[in-house]
Amino acid sequence: MTRAHLTGWGACEDTCDAAALVVSELVTNAIVHTASRRIHCELHELCDDAGERVRIAVRDEGRMPGDSAPAGRIAPEEEHGRGLLLVAAVSSAWGAQETGPGLVVWAELPRDGGQGAVPGPMAGDSGPAEWSW
């Protein structure tokens, strides 16, 4: 669905590929690390002084009371735990915001597929969603 919508918006193939990876990683994290019965994913087109970008936001409902947060360090031999490293590698910016009991994790990708800013967290709000599921 991500690829189809971004193609319809005229995003380049590299952006579509990166967006599909980001959605997969963020949704997987929400499924694995929360007790969410519903996960909401949004795609936004952004155009401002920072350029044309696509913003992906995944909102979950949070953990069950008493659940602990996952460990911070990943051993080199581990097969899991590198999703956000992938998100950071393909995104121009990304971050997370608590929303009551849940979390919104978002990432921005340059619409033209080139790297915009240095990857890392960035504050801000995207405004209304243009497409979500």
Notes on the structure:
This protein has about 130 residues and is α+β, with helices and mostly antiparallel strands. It contains three helices and five strands. Strands 3-4-2-1-5 form a five-stranded antiparallel beta sheet, with helices on one face. Helix 1 packs antiparallel against helix 2. The chain is globular and about 40 Å long. It starts with a helix and ends with a strand.
Kindly summarize this structure in a few lines:
By secondary structure, the chain is an alpha+beta fold. The chain has three helices and five strands.
User: What structural class is derived from the secondary structure elements?
Assistant: alpha+beta
Number of helices: 3
Provide the low-confidence segments as ranges: 115-129
Strand content: 25-35%
User: Span from first to last CA?
Assistant: 9 Å
Helix content: 25-40%
Order of helices and strands: HHEEHEEE
State Rg. Answer: 15 Å
Q: pLDDT average, as an integer?
A: 80
What is the number of strand segments?
5
Outline, from the CA principal axes?
A: globular
- How is the biggest beta sheet arranged? 5 strands, antiparallel
Neighbour order of strands in the largest sheet = 3-4-2-1-5
Compile the SSE list and pairings.
Layout: H1 2-8, H2 13-33, E1 40-48, E2 51-59, H3 83-90, E3 93-99, E4 102-110, E5 131-132
Antiparallel strand pairs: 1-2, 1-5, 2-4, 3-4
Helix pairs in contact: 1-2, 2-3
